[in-house]
Amino acid sequence: MKTDSIADHEFADFIAGNRITVNGYLNKVMWCFVATGPALVWGIKGGVFNNIEYATCLYISLTVVVLSFIHMMLRKFIPDSVFTGLFALTSLDMLIVYMSVSHVAIHLTWFLVPLLSLLFCDKIVYAYAVALNYVLMVAATWYSSDFLSSFSTRFDSQRAYFLNEIGGFTIETLVMLISGYTIVKLAGDYFRELFRQNKVIIEKDKSMKEKMDILDSMVEIYDNVNLISFVDSTEMSLRSEAQEKHGIDMTTQTHTLMNQRIKNQIMPDQLDAFLTFTNIKTVRSRLSQKKIISADFIDVVSGWFRAQYITVDATVDGIPNTVIYVTRNVDEEKRREEHLVRISMTDEMTRLYNRRCYDEDLIELRENALPEQFVIFSVDVNGLKTVNDTKGHAAGDELIKGAADCLTLTIGNHGKVYRTGGDEFMAVVYTDDPEELRNAIHARAAGWHGIYCEKISVSIGYAAYASDSEATIDDLERRADADMYAEKESYYRKNGIDRRR
């Protein structure tokens, strides 16, 4: 609808421009008619026009000069106006009427004005020209019939002559009206459709140019850009200077030439996934009703890269006809993502894994069978509140960091250590001797010395899966906490500390 509206607007502009052009030619025709007077003078002298006076010739030329000048002024100030065109046609009609009543034989010339009006490609203008021409023709014929009938023996009265003449003129006028209207309508419809089609072509060219501009931009952004057509089964690398099309045999070929080259650099453990994603036989169905599909893989040379299929042109049902296959290095992006994930999973003070990481790891552990060596440790710093109250929070933070260091250095590659609260730690460990590991942590804590605090003490509890193979991960967590609190109670009793105070 928008295209049709624009086309109609452009057609109206065309008609206005056409009026300017036709008015220009009509003005030239009118100035040419100035020569009608002198031509009639030569006819009188030659004995051709015996019933015309010399004054008539002068009046004709003067009248044409005046009318031509007025029309020239109208063209100057309102060149595309319908009135300017109607004035020219009316002026020509007036000239013909004057010549007719002056007894100049101009029977054929009566139809000159309607014929000229066809040039405007306007049904209203044409209808005006035919109607005015017919009215003036009737009036002029009636006025001249008395004079002309006297030269004919076929008619016994002025009325008979008039009816005979005007009957022929009426039939000719009807024929001209119908044929001329058909011509004007066909011409208008033709030009209107021409503008509509031209607008559609312009819109398509604009759309194609925009797509090509996008493709040019993509060529600069991406490492590889491949244009794949499912219509003619071809591929073309847009980064290649030659940009040569290569045929794709959809019956036997599963991968484009580009992917056959890229697959040689894929990490071995990702090769199957890459071949599945880039299978050219399934791309069209997977991309149906979608704008883009993508997947990330690792290049053994340059690291992570992202492969994407992007729909460029599709059927009305959303099935892609033309797609762009691109690859872009995202190794830095992946590293940044990993860094952000690591930050979100890490405790800022101790650089241990945080509570969120612990909870997510437990979810994964619940979904899988626990190995025989699985052990959960629960660790708590003793006397942290007293240190905070007496020596300040800097000393308390030193104790938390000290406990974290002792756990990390002792557990090492045996598992992961998490800070799950203020002075609370959890560890997921794989060991055959958890008691030995607990003693090792205590021994390392006994040898610790800080700036604000001379020593550190921690309570440690654990629960081993080997002790109860029916226990769930949550059961082991509760048992480890209970064991830790039991050791904490023992620590306070041994050191004579009343926890209630």
Structural overview:
This protein has three domains: 2-198, no CATH class; 222-330, Beta-Lactamase (2-Layer Sandwich), CATH 3.30.450; 345-494, Reverse transcriptase/Diguanylate cyclase domain (Alpha-Beta Plaits), CATH 3.30.70.270. Helix content is 58%, strand content 14%. It has helices at residues 2-32, 36-45, 54-77, 82-101, 112-117, 123-149, 158-221, 257-262, 271-277, 280-286, 331-344, 355-366, 384-391, 393-411, 434-446, 473-494, and strands at 224-229, 234-237, 245-247, 292-299, 303-314, 320-329, 374-381, 415-419, 424-430, 458-464. The chain has a six-stranded antiparallel beta sheet with strand order 3-2-1-6-5-4, with helices on both faces. The chain has a four-stranded antiparallel beta sheet with strand order 8-9-7-10, sandwiched between helices. A hairpin with a 7-residue loop joins strand 2 and strand 3. Helix 2 (36-45) runs antiparallel to helix 3 (54-77). The two termini are 85 Å apart.
Descriptors:
single chain, 501 residues, alpha+beta, Beta-Lactamase, Alpha-Beta Plaits, 3 domains, rod-shaped
How does the overall form come out from the CA principal axes? rod-shaped
Report low-confidence residues grouped into runs of 5 or more: none
Helix and strand pattern: HHHHHHHEEEHHHEEEHHEHHEEHEH
The profile of the biggest β sheet is:
6 strands, antiparallel
Structural class: alpha+beta
By DSSP, the count of extended strands is 10
| Helical amount | 55-70%
Distance between the termini: 85 Å
Q: Average pLDDT across residues?
A: 86
Question: How much of the polypeptide forms β-strand, as a percent range?
Answer: 5-15%
Estimated radius of gyration: 50 Å
Q: Strand order across the biggest sheet?
A: 3-2-1-6-5-4
> How many individual helices?
16
Number of domains: 3
